[in-house]
Amino acid sequence: MEPKHKVVILGGGFGGLAAAQKMKRVPVEITLIDRRNFHLFQPLLYQVATGSLSPGEIAAPLRSVLSRQKNARVLLGEAVDVDPDAKRVILRDGDSYPYDSLVVATGSQTSYYGNEDWRKWAPSLKSVEEATAIRHKILYAFERAERAATEEEARVWLTFVIVGAGATGLELSGALAEIARETLRHDFRKIRPQEARILLLEGAPRVLGAYPEDLSAKAEKLLTRLGVEVVKGVMVTNIGPEGVTFKRGDATELLAARTVIWAGGVTAPPFGERLAQRTKAETDRSGRIKVAPDLTIPNYPDIFIIGDLAHAGDEKGKPLPGVAQVAMQGGAYAAKTIRARVEGKQPVRPFHYFNKGDMAVIGRAAAVANIFGVHLAGWPAWLIWLFVHLMYIVEFQSRVLVFIQWGFEYLTFSRGARLITGTAATDSLVKPETMGNTGDGR
Questions:
Q1: Range of the domain at 128
Q2: End-to-end alpha-carbon separation of the chain, Å?
Q3: Is 171 a catalytic residue?
Q4: Total-model pTM
Q5: Could you read off the pLDDT of 124-167 as tens digits, one per residue?
Q6: Is position 58 within any domain?
């Protein structure tokens, strides 16, 4: 009996998990390696950051998800190198795993465009840890404002800045506006949370640049209605303990704020860079690897790149977006191709992305959606967004819990996960000298 075809999948996100599950009945040995032991439903990560959901409600243990799939095993580890000629993946601890087919679905990481020191003051939203760090910063700001000695000090703590007006930036700013205007409005005695100032900064001339112009305009209108200030055409030049410095035209402005959240661009993770070096693959400006029509690296037909790390084009040559749908369809395609090879069948057709549409939620009963070319905004788009996100959560138990939480939140505006845990850089900030020594804050 000849040994089974070995498939190594790096990453248990949308793409990696789809690839593994689609090979359930294929005579292969699947090894899924991830540095986390869970699959994270990233589209709802902003709800962890704003206290609507707890991390466990949007995460599913990978071993549990694949426990009934006998041809798959899950290993905890981080891939740091690859030998494409010897067909081996090397992990951080030195272990290596051979493969006949390699599916790389390691995703992307946040890019601060060369300004890594900004990360300390402006966390991004890519992991559970970052989501809870943002939650800490947001809730801590209201607490410090309550203790402020002067109105000026309170105003600085009650100024929130989100940098980047893509879907994540809109979701965060909309949720933050609802926290300030509704959730916390009766919780404090000294401050009025509803007077918090929330600003969304964007370098481009409009929000949601990847969306049609009419939906972009509607999204901005919905945001403004919630009280969010949208500032477009600006370039951030510095982020520090005092706030955000940005250029508007030729003028430079300092926006005093203690809470800054980064929702900017993405770049390839270190393993992606290493893989590109080893295979001499071409990359784009973000470090994404340019793949062949069958999602493999040119000259390496046994290495598939799917999801955020892949630079794949549509029929018009336009790069596909880094969204869950692209990753899932890429994973399914890689699985189908590997199956055809194992069974000695004809190669499958080049990868074709079937775009089902784009959605972005702004707040309660407020969203925009482009579904099969039909543009929706407001209540209908929000209902579709709810349904789609519930259906794509991996575990049934999590779907039920999230549905119940959303029901309570819709009826009461309450957010059940308002916990201040961990620490943030802003915790150590002391009052300016002009405000006197630290006392009881009165």
A1: 116-264+358-427
A2: 80
A3: yes
A4: 0.92
A5: 999 999 999 999 999 999 999 999 999 999 999 999 999 999 99
A6: no
